[in-house]
Each structure stands twice: as structure tokens, then as C-alpha cells.
Amino acid sequence: MSRLKRFGVSIEEKVLKNFDSYIKKKKYPTRSKAISDLIVKELVKHEWLKGNTVVGVISLVYNHHKRDIVEKLTDIQHDFYDVIISSQHIHLDHNNCFEIVIVRGKPDKIKNLSEKLAGTKGVKYSNLTAAITGKNI
Length: 137
Ligand code: NI
Known about the structure:
about 40% helix; about 30% strand
């Protein structure tokens, strides 16, 4: 972690009041931590838009009894083997599976993979958690 830097911010009273109630609900220890997290979130978005190498996690919930779903999801993942670092499969109950796919690569390719997996018939839930390598922060 780099050195902490202090700076002054002027903000409308009403906005600050709303922000303080927001950070209280989120249980942030300080305003500084809350503001820092918001800035990092924006930088992550920016990094994804710039198209640099990013990381992420795709999570999926599906019923493995659904016709051909396991083969389809595996085929898609093999088409994107170069951006997949690792995956883990958890059997939730008799029918349902939870799978996480950890990815690293160009944002367009990762979004494409995420959309293909999400669009597979039988996938009940899918989410892409976007992160960055952290090198530029
Ligand atoms: Ni399973």
C-alpha cells in the first residue's frame, strides 16, 4: 500500500449528510475509507473501459440435470481457455450446481465469455464481478 495523502474536499452539506448516513449503514469506520473505496470502484470501471488486462470472477448457478448443460458450459470454457485461470464447482444440492470461473485478460473477451455462459439454457443465475490487477492503483 502506498503512502496516505491528506486532501481537503468541499461538498454540499446535504450531500455530505446523505453520504454520512450511507457510510453509517455500510458500517465504514471512517469517511476516508468510504471515499477511497468509491474512488477505487470508479478506477476499476475506467480500467475495464480502457481495455487493459483485468481480472474477474464469473459465478453461475444451474441445474445439472438440464439437457447437455454441463457439456455446453465446458465447451464454452474451452473456447476461452486462454483467459480462464481456474474454476471451481460446488454441488449445492441434488439438482443445483454453483460454479465460479476466475478470469484474467482483455475486458471484451471476459465480457463475451460471461455473456455466453449466462446465456446458456438452464443457467439460473450468473454474475460477473469485475476487478483489476491493482498494478495501476
Ligand atoms: Ni454439481
